[in-house]
Amino acid sequence: MGSIQSNKVKFVSKCADGTSVTTSQEIFHSAPAARGGTIGGPQIVSKLAMKFKKCDGLRLEKFEADTSGTIKAAIACSSLAPGVNLSFGADTKAVEGKGDAAGKLGASNALHATLTYSHSDLLCSTHKLDFLNKTLTSDAMIGYESFLLGGKFNLSEKKKAYNLVAGMNSGAHRFAVEACNPMANNSSFNLSGYIVPAKGVEVGIMSTCKMTGTDKKDGEWGTKMSGSVSGCFSLDDAGTSLTTTVSTEDELKTFNVGLSYTQMVRNWARVTASGEVGITNVDHVAFGLELELGNI
Q1: Dihedral sign for Cα atoms in the order 36, 39, 41, 44
Q2: How confident is the model at residue 160, as a pLDDT?
Q3: Contact (Cβ atoms closer than 8 angstroms) between residue 101 and residue 95
Q4: Is 271 exposed, middle or buried (0-12, 13-18, 19+ CB in 10 A)?
Q5: d(CA 180, CA 187)
Q6: DSSP, res 102
Q7: What does pTM read for this prediction?
Q8: Are 260 and 277 spatial neighbours (Cβ–Cβ below 8 Å)?
Q9: Strands 135-144 and 43-51
Q10: What pLDDT score does 104 carry?
Q11: Predicted confidence (pLDDT) per residue in 83-105, tens digit
């Protein structure tokens, strides 16, 4: 996979016991802007990520590390009670300083506990407490027949935020509406949908409307629109498909078109080739080639 900013190679291995091991190497042509990077020139980042099979009792849940200074690890205790799981994790990563520390690298650390509860298909909730950053994140989803209702709440020393979501499905079609901080000046609303208009055709729609500013006299007052439409077309019954994607942001200031082709070359091998180009931003170019081997 690659773009004009970087090239990336990723290898994923899934063991018979359910353990997943991912190794990747990404070559950045300049400082990784996606990570907020401005320090240094070209960089090579190698990453190892391991996720372990879920089982009852105390276990190692995941471990991640890369050469940019990021380390993540978590242990979990499953089935403390029916539907109750508890995990503890620690994260650290290198970040660029701000203010007087601008131009210098520092560390961002987190120590958190996560409690999850699920009751069949009726209720699912997750609560995460970060002890070092003093933040609390809670979310809950309630489903009944063809309807879904849920919410998310974030609490920290600096701000409070909450989201509300409602969804429904009708046969193979699914729709959801999400409101983020609906009573605030910076509120946003998201609409997503999944439609199967005909056999072998799948369409996905996502749209976001974000409010900006607090006063008409403010130059930033108004709304920002973004959205994407994806269509997947099945070419045969052997897993061959063609996917097209169109996405835009900030009133067509960003307009990208993508194309992806997937084919089963064997029962145990699948190849996907993809690419994306910018229409208004001609500097945006991305491409990818994926080979998946194993029990597909």
Answers
A1: negative
A2: 87
A3: no
A4: middle
A5: 6
A6: B
A7: 0.74
A8: no
A9: unpaired
A10: 63
A11: 899 999 999 988 776 655 555 66
Give, for 273, the enclosing helix (H) or strand (E). strand 269-278
Three-state DSSP state, 159? coil
Token pair recorded at residue 283: 């500097």
Give the whole-angstrom CA distance, residue 118 versus residue 189.
27
Range name among 101-115, 170-184, 249-263, 273-287 with the lowest pLDDT average:
101-115
pLDDT at 34 over 50: no
d(CA 97, CA 106): 6
Reported as a pLDDT band with limits 50, 70 and 90, residue 186 is confident
Token digits of residue 79? 């089935």
**Per-residue tokens: 147:** 């309807």
Q: What's the CA gap between 73 and 289, in Å, rounded?
A: 29
The encoded tokens of residue 125 equal 């909730």
Q: Which amino acid is at 270?
A: R
**pLDDT (tens digit per residue) in 271-293:** 999 999 988 887 888 888 888 87
Q: Please tell me the distance from the alpha carbon of residue 231 to that of residue 261, in angstroms, as a whole number.
A: 12
Pair of tokens at residue 187: 């509120």
In the numeric block, the tokens 């190698």 are attached to: 46
Tokens of 76: 């979990």
Query: How crowded is residue 85: how many other Cβ atoms within 10 Å of its Cβ?
Result: 19
Kindly give the pairing relationship between strand 188-198 and strand 201-212: antiparallel
Angle at 137 between CA 134 and CA 141, to 5 degrees: 170
